[in-house]
Amino acid sequence: MLNPLKANSRVLRRASIRRLAQPSVSVISNPIRSAGSLSQRPNSGFVSFPGALKSSFTSSLKFETPESYTALPTYRVVDQNGQVVDPSFSPDISDEAVIKLYKDMLYISIMDLIMFDAQRQGRLSFYMVSAGEEAVSVGTSSVLDKDDPVFCQYREQGLFKERGFTTEQFMSQLFANRNDNGRGRNMPIHYGCKPLNIHTVSSPLATQLPQASGAAYALKLQRLQDPSSKPRVAAVFFGEGAASEGDFHAALNIAATRSCPVVFICRNNGFAISTPTLDQYRGDGIASRGIGYGIDTIRIDGNDIWAVREATKKAREMALQDGGKPVLIEAMTYRVSHHSTSDDSFAYRARVEVEDWKRRDNPITRLRKWMEAKGCWDEAKEKEARDSLRKEILKGFSEAEREKKPPIGSMFEDVYESLTPDLKEQMGQLKELLETYPEEYDVASYEGGVASLDVPKDN
Amino acid sequence: MKRQAVRHLKGALAHPRARSAAPLNLARCYSTHPPNAKLNLPIDYSTTPLLAHTSAIAKQNTEISSDVLHGATKKMNLFQAINDALNIALTEDETVSVFGEDVAFGGVFRCTMKLAETHGADRVFNTPLTEQGILGFAIGMAVEGMRPVAEIQFADYVFPAFDQIVNEAAKKRYYEGANGRSAGGMTVRMPCGTVGHGALYHSQSPEALFTHVPGMRVIMPRSPLQAKGLLLAAIRSNDPCIFMEPKILYRAAVEEVPVAPYELPLSKAEVIKEGKNVTIVSYGQPLYNCMAAIKQAEEDLGISVELIDLRTIYPWDKKTVFESVQKTGRVLVVHESMVNAGVGAEVAAAIQENADTFNRLEAPVSRVAGWSIHNALIFEKFHVPDVARIYDSIKKTVQY
């Protein structure tokens, strides 16, 4: 819709429908006032256009300028030094629970370092770290209900971890081995887990957004049909770059019009690969757009896990009110890391800028400072936690790396619910090829070897 | 005003033209035929053998269970048959919902009439004008266990949703892998094809763009009876389905349709007329043109022609087509959309790739399809395969 060409095609489309209908002989003899007509009470200061209710008339010719609005504020609970700035705040969870969240954040940051290096050593094809954004994924996850379906973009490993994704599950996906939920079909970091109600990550940006709106609508219908079922929301993550895609607009607009219980969570980390926000959008971030769609919106400090938790808790509550409605959270962060292992961000930003951010404001150190001030964490505990997490990850790493790949025959499965005659024939063709040229293919590392291409009898 | 306009459009789109010569109306010159034409006459939908004009004929269907055939039949046009299938699906399964642009008031082609009143505004509803949103929304509902039936108002406007269809709906089951989720509950309906005056953006038939993408079933019915059974099968299918409705048939094609629910098989072609000398493979509206051309060719050339309706265009029924080619040795593939990289290319390639059918061929496989151009308003009658072109291709194939 934002594309002018698109808008034009709409105009043409409607116009052409009317034009096609013109040769009609019917005369409009008794005009019917439709919902689209303009109606106004005498002497009213307002006009009821169907597209803008309660808009008052004005005689001053004035365009609104974005600069005349102050930027939306950023909600925070704890500042960079770990000091509580909201006097009304008191933690709603035990010290043990906070420590668990902290360890989840640590786990992700340690796994990121190990896997980034592993990719550099050629042991992994690709990786994406989430350094600087751990509070958003872990914090939101910790206050969503475990039965709330979640749609991720690709930098939410913290949510997987917090929900209970295991080291073996992470590593199996990263190494595309036979235990990978995704059956070895997708690039590393495209995790998914049905028992944890997390939909599998796919690479196209923003496609997950209208899907989350639809999923939320499904939850709403299911609850209408079975009022005794548990109220649930859908949650969906995306970056500020993805918000430039048409699917973002589609998702928010359709969620608003259908009153879908969905929480949109934007990680505004300042960069879409190399593109800084100034080249991505003008206007007040992503949050200002939510208001335009008629959606309740908040901007938060994404480096403050307490702010993330408080805002998400409240957003979830709101999303379930009035029969369901969408809520938008814009979490401000800074992508400390490169975009992915295929990216060297020092080609487009200064190393010193990144170092500054790391030192000045980091979600993990911020929570650590808060915990130390509270007296539930110290250097010894930090060292112990880091060591044990590192060991656990490395152990999972080497186990997963040694596992066999999934069976070759499985590459033909899950295209359709069952194998089509064409696919069965193609399995046979591939099998014949592999058997004719055994020197040309390494099949030993795949579970079951060539035999996995035997066509199942009753499929 | 808009609704009125739309109603006029529907009438204009699909009324069968009377065969008796009417006074020349310049405003409608692009939908009349030359006075001396013998082949390119308007299709007489009231007599074509492709439609079951009586209940007795409808009840001869061998794919529908006898229980259903013992029940009543009712005269329906294509939009009524679609409406009937949607109504049944909504009634029998509370996970089914129907939505799209202008769907709530009944749809611009009347396919969703009274569904919102009957099944409630939560399950039958309007969406904003956002094809990518509609598709994404449908996929999201499907992966959470629902059976959404999404409508794209014209196939010409499906392209903003291409990312959702190609990268998400088609691949969902594949990338979810062992998680077992899929977009299989989803069915996307869209009117397609030419109507005489739809020009570039109300005429397209983009099935070949979908048949290149594994993961979906692409279906196009030829008649009301077929549409009801195939649409119910598509909605109940656990694979995502693209259901393309030739919009010229919405009002033109009328036949007796069993009232009870029934399914017709997906990915199964149907031999709708047996013959010995030539096989014609087609689907959708061109089948009517094929039938008219066959009648004339059989009279003129003393041959008999077999006509096959693919029905599901992908994954398509090679077995039925190959068996027919084994019998006749001569094949035409007829479709309305452009010839380049179209369905005809796939069918022809498969026939020459199969050693048995390749050896049996007596003539090159011929593709009779739209030229490799766009649908130009005033030139449509020269663009779309008509009776004369199909007749001529039969003749050339026989005389090769």
Provide a short characterization of the protein structure.
The complex is a heterodimer of chains A (459) and B (400). Helix content of chain A is 40%, strand content 9%.
Q: What are its keywords?
A:
heterodimer; A: 459 residues; alpha/beta; Rossmann fold; 14 helices; globular; B: alpha/beta; seven-stranded mixed beta sheet; five-stranded mixed beta sheet; 14 strands
Describe this structure in words.
The complex is a heterodimer of chains A (459) and B (400). Chain A has 459 residues and is of the alpha/beta class. Chain A folds into 2 domains: 70-402, 3-Layer(aba) Sandwich (Rossmann fold), CATH 3.40.50; 408-453, no CATH class. Chain A is built from 14 helices and 9 strands. A 5-stranded parallel sheet of chain A has the order 3-4-5-9-8, sandwiched between helices. In chain A, helix 2 packs across helix 13, helix 3 runs parallel beside helix 4 and helix 3 (134-143) crosses helix 10 (305-319). Chain B has 2 domains: 53-256, Rossmann fold (3-Layer(aba) Sandwich); 268-397, Rossmann fold. Chain B is globular. In chain B, helix 12 (286-301) packs across helix 17 (387-399). The model of chain B is unreliable at 1-27 (pLDDT under 50). Chain B is of the alpha/beta class and 400 residues long. In chain B, the strands form 3 sheets. Chain B has a 7-stranded mixed sheet, sandwiched between helices. Chain B has a 5-stranded mixed sheet with strand order 9-11-10-13-14, sandwiched between helices. Chain B has helices at 2-14, 55-58, 66-70, 78-92, 115-119, 131-143, 162-169, 172-176, 207-211, 224-236, 249-252, 286-301, 318-328, 343-353, 355-360, 380-383, 387-399; strands at residues 73-77, 96-100, 124-126, 147-151, 187-192, 217-219, 241-246, 254-258, 270-273, 278-282, 305-309, 312-314, 331-338, 366-370. Helices cover 38% and strands 17% of the residues of chain B. Chain B starts with a helix and ends with a helix. At the A-B interface, helix 1, helix 6 and helix 7 of A face helix 1, helix 6, helix 7 and helix 8 of B. Chain B: One of its GO terms (biological process) is branched-chain amino acid catabolic process. Chain B: Its EC number is 1.2.4.4. Chain B: Keywords: Oxidoreductase.
